[in-house]
Structures are given as structure tokens and as C-alpha cells.
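call fold(seq) -> C-alpha cells
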Amino acid sequence: MSRIPLPYNPKVMDLFQHPKNLGKMEDATVVAVAGNPACGDMITFYLKIDEAKQIIEKASFESYGCAANIATSSIVTEMVKCLTLEKAWNEITWKKVTEEIGGLPNVKFHCGVLAVGALKRAIRQYFKEKGVAPPAWLPNEHTFEEKQALEEEELAKTLSKRLKPEAEKK
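ret:
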């Protein structure tokens, strides 16, 4: 069976080969993970937040995945710098991420969804960890991107249980 390379544009390839803000952030205010180990796309997002102003000062990521996964994660970390949590929540969408990197093959749109899902999970996690009521702009219901990230995780858990030998299931 032959594999045809996906038609990634030069910006995606550049971000894949030279990602921005790659690596663990030791002084992160909040950390969130999204992904599906069964398909290979995993992202950990780190945000450093100015807590008084609720502004994202720094963002970084760790990724295990394809070129689109790395490129979309990289561009999200660039897009959120100096944004308030509210602006990041409301203005960063998977469609904007896809546009910002010059497009993706249709079969890779889920990478943009996953990157934004990780960002939104980090923002939601920030308020949860602070033990404060979430602001009015943060919906009680999970967003599309968060739901996709959660669904992928649930699928991965289900698959891993099915693949375990019977003795390990008990």
C-alpha cells in the first residue's frame, strides 16, 4: 500500500520543522492536556497568566503528533500571547487557526480543533484550580473543541480497555 504525502503548505511545514514555543514551561500557571494516544495526536498546553489582569503572558506546548498537530499548536501559542483569557476564549477558533496557518487538508482539520480544545481546557482549568466561580463569558457547557478533545480521550480509554488482556481487565 502506498502513502501519498499530504499537501501541506509552506507555512505548515515551517511551523512543523521550526515550531514556536515548543517545550515544557516550568513556571506555568496552568497546564492542560488534550488528545488521543490511539491516533497519535497529543498536546500539552502551558499558560503563564498575569493573574491580576488575566492576560496570557506566555504559552508553550509539547506535542506528539503529525505536522498539522505541531503547526496548529505552535500557531495557537503565538495567537494567544498578550490576550486576556476572555479574548483568547472568544476569539481563538479552529477556523481562525486554520486560516492563520494558510489552510490544512480536510483530513487534518481535527488538529486545529484539538489545539483550540487544549487552549480552552487550560482556560477552564485555570478557574477550576483557583476555586473561583467562572466568569460570565465562560459557558457552563463545553465548547465544540472541548467536546472533541473529551470524545477523543474517551475513545482512547475505551480502546485501551478493549486491547488489554483479560487478566488485566479485572
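The CA atoms of residues 7 and 105 lie 7 Å apart.
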